[in-house]
Amino acid sequence: MFDSPPCADLPELALATFQERLRFANIEHPAMQALVPLACARAEQCMAVRPGDFPDPGEATPETPKPFPPVDPVRILQQEVALPSLPQVVVELQEHINSESSSAEDMGEVISRDVGLAAALLRMVNSAFFAFPSQIETISRAVTVVGTKQLTTLALGASVMGMFKKTDILDMDMERFWRHSIACGIIARAIAQRLKLEEPERYFVAGLLHDLGRPAMFAAHPDRAQAALALAHSGLLTPSEQTAFGFDHARFGSMLLRKWNFPFFIVMGVLHHHNPEKALEHPQAAIIHVADVMAQTLGHGATAHFHIPPLDNAVYDSLPLTTDMLTTITEELDEILDAFCSLLVPGKG
């Protein structure tokens, strides 16, 4: 346990909010013992404590919503909601990825035809995220220095972000949602780099898209979404989604990405990041699970009323991470998150 109550020096509102967020977190875990003080030290700039983030202690808890019969996620994908269609550039990139005869020049030519996507990728490649020593001025050069698969994967992630620009999904703060997603992606990539895993950009995109199912399913069934949020008022949102929908955002997001023919690696990472047993079989899901908990602990949560989910011991222990690595990754996140959000968040930059 902590030698002294964590964050005891925070202002009263911030302290009460942070303690509430920690209600379900297993703060006895050594990783959390390292992360919580780091979060406290960054509370003012990243805790994002806002009026209404959590109710006043005397405020009445919302009534438990009436149960809904389960809904078939396949029916939502096929019939019930006009989900965004993939841009043509993504369709073509998918075709090139799956073609053994496609070259780096083919990929670069497709990306270059989408001026907005090309500009976003060049901003990303020239950011501190990659920290190349010289300016990268063309997509063809970016393909060369970053790698064909890596840049194409980043293009897929950036394109999907641009498809979810709406800010009126149950009053979801989409800027906040994407900030959490980007933080998770940055952390996942940093973990992959430290573990010397191949193609760390795949982990970034899997982290970037890990919660994609949430705005999609909330837009499809706002009544069920309201019920999930009410249930999460005093609990965790993912189990509340299971109760209100019959499935959660991880399953729906993976189905959506599978429908769009995203790489199996990313689909599995999204599907299992809340499923410890399966995450042990899919290291990318284990990394996203840890990155997700880290991002939330450090104050970058996807929704206003968020509680930090427990860090699964077995999943964390399956990765050879040290507390020194967590500290370094946190410092790197501090350095690039704001700049990266300005590059990627739809409607910003």
Task: Please explain how this structure is put together.
- The protein has 20 helices and no strands.
- It has 349 residues and is mostly helical.
- It has helices at residues 12-21, 30-41, 43-46, 73-80, 88-97, 104-113, 115-125, 139-146, 148-163, 174-194, 200-208, 213-220, 222-231, 237-245, 249-259, 264-271, 276-279, 283-297, 313-317, 323-344.
- It has two domains: 6-56 and 170-338, Hypothetical protein af1432; 86-163, no CATH class.
- The mean pLDDT is 84.
- The N and C termini lie far apart (42 Å).
- The longest helix is centred in the C-terminal third of the chain and has 22 residues, at 323-344.
- Helices cover 60% and strands 0% of the residues.
- Helix 9 (148-163) runs parallel beside helix 11 (200-208), helix 10 (174-194) packs across helix 20 and helix 12 (213-220) crosses helix 15.
Layout of helices and strands:
Layout: H1 12-21, H2 30-41, H3 43-46, H4 73-80, H5 88-97, H6 104-113, H7 115-125, H8 139-146, H9 148-163, H10 174-194, H11 200-208, H12 213-220, H13 222-231, H14 237-245, H15 249-259, H16 264-271, H17 276-279, H18 283-297, H19 313-317, H20 323-344
